[in-house]
Amino acid sequence: MFNTLKIAGMEIYPGKRKKTMIKVGELPDSSNVYVPFIVVNGKEDGPILVLRGGEHGSEYCGQEQVRTAALEVDPEKLSGSIIALPNCNPLAYQSGTYKNIKVYDNSIGENINYPGDPNGNFDQRVANLIWKEALSKADVTLSMHDGATHWIARYITNISNTINKKELGEKSLQIVKAFGVGLPIDYNEVPEYSGYRAELLKQNIPFMTIELGGMRCLWSKDCSDGIKGITNVMKHLNMINGDPEPSEQIIFKEKILIRCEHGGVLKPAFSPLDIPLIVEEEEELCTITNLLGDELEVLRSPFKGVVFCARSNCATHTGDWLYGIGKVN
Question: What's the pTM?
Answer without folding.
Answer: 0.94
